[in-house]
Amino acid sequence: MNKDFWQNLKKPIIALAPMDGYTDSAFRQICKEVNPAIIVFTEFTSADGLSHGAKTLKEKIAFVPSEQPIIVQLFGKEPQKFVEAVKYCEAAGFAGIDINMGCPARKVIRSEHGLALRKDPETAFRIVEAVAKNTKLPVSVKTRLGWDGNLDLDSFAKGIENAGANLITIHARFFKEVRFGPIDYNPLYELKSKIKIPIIVNGGITSLTDGLEKIGNLDGLMIGRAALGNPWVFNLKPVTNFSEKIPVIKRHAAYMVKTKGAKAGILQMRKHLLDYVSAMPQAKNFRSQLARVNNLKEIDGVLAEIKTSLAAESA
Ligand SMILES: Cc1cc2nc3c(=O)[nH]c(=O)nc-3n(C[C@H](O)[C@H](O)[C@H](O)COP(=O)(O)O)c2cc1C
Which residues form the DUS-like FMN-binding domain (predicted)? Predict the structure, then answer.
């Protein structure tokens, strides 16, 4: 991989957003099976922790070859910790390094990580510069419009570009809007002519068609929540038939068990199972069963029951 990776990538870039607790290897594999052209990111991972060689974090960002090109997302505030963490990521075979400068979670902000770096752009630029200088991999930044209504997006984007960033992804909301407040893509469209690096739009995209409309003059689109329970969002043609979804859901569960072990894999699969049926009022009666499954066999059993009940309803 080289620094031109993002520039040379076929446009529009279509990406699965990093989502802590969700976009682990199993879910990323499933999304890539739906659309092999998408780019996937790991869940955000502490640069400090990785720099100390934390085993749990190494496991957290583990991936399989079919996920390539996969980008690892790191958060932190100390340039040197990033440099050390990036050494590990390079050796592990990642295709790129993404730096989290957008997370608004209270814990993250209190530690001056994530979006807090938008209040301290000099540190943000120093991090990007240190990472860019010390890796062969492309470096990207994921951020938001800004901290509040004072739009410093242009100067921030120029700053990270000058520091060596090769791509910027922007969730088109401010800090205080967290994930549900008003969204404004216009500052992104206006930014496009002011920087050379590609720009990915993120936030509130509900389908591929919707994203291709919102992309405007930008280079790519990133989908987060709309992919939960719906990896088919990466297809132009939605999948609505539950029978068609079942083999994919089963494979997702099997990947979970394979990557996390039988106990943790199933426990963590439960929320995905609920996501898969969340838009189906007919499956309401099965939600409590899905929330309590203990193994792959039980998952198969409840999915089969849902299928039978849907067939009976439509008969
Ligand atoms: C459960 C959850 C976890 C998230 N974790 C991360 C993360 O680890 N790193 C990150 O940059 N953004 C994270 N985000 C933000 C998403 O990447 C994305 O920017 C946001 O959800 C807006 O996109 P959407 O409207 O398509 O979901 C997370 C969002 C959700 C809902």
Answer: 16-303
